[in-house]
Amino acid sequence: MRAKRDIPTDLFEYPGMRKQSCITQLILVGLVLEADDEGRGLACAELLAHALNRTVTQIEEALSALEQIGMLMCYQAGRYRYYALTYWRKWQRIRRPLPSRYPAPPVGNAGRKEVPHGAQS
């Protein structure tokens, strides 16, 4: 069972977020709620569309847009595609996190620096 999730009050102040559609912003909130304790989840558009009550096209567009502005990264591991939320550790304080059942992002992406909050997009 997932621990509670925090949605930052300044979420829409992050670089590039104000330019995103309301649907993309809502999907990001859904991805935060769907993520495991390490901020990862399956990036299967069909499953996410069902879970978030959106279309497959909306999910794919949101994943692409959110990846372009650095809010998440999508990656392939084996047969499946996953997402990892870039600011997860800044947003969440989980007392006893459960290990992720999803593979970690590739090392080249995992070490990527976060865009500083407040930086211009």
Characterize the structure shown.
With 121 residues, the chain is α+β, with helices and mostly antiparallel strands. It has a single domain, classed as Winged helix-like DNA-binding domain superfamily/Winged helix DNA-binding domain (Arc Repressor Mutant, subunit A). It has 5 helices and 3 strands, in the order αβααββαα. It has helices at residues 22-34, 45-52, 56-68, 88-91, 107-110, and strands at residues 40-42, 72-77, 80-85. It has a 3-stranded antiparallel β-sheet, covered by helices on one side. β2 (72-77) and β3 (80-85) form a beta hairpin. α1 packs across α3 (56-68) and α2 (45-52) crosses α3 (56-68). 24% of the residues are buried.
Give me a quick take on this structure:
The protein is of the alpha+beta class and 121 residues long. It contains five helices and three strands.
Structure characteristics:
121 residues, Arc Repressor Mutant, subunit A, 5 helices, alpha+beta, 3 strands
Please specify the SSE layout and strand pairing.
Blueprint: H1 22-34, E1 40-42, H2 45-52, H3 56-68, E2 72-77, E3 80-85, H4 88-91, H5 107-110
Antiparallel strand pairs: 1-3, 2-3
Helix pairs in contact: 1-3, 2-3
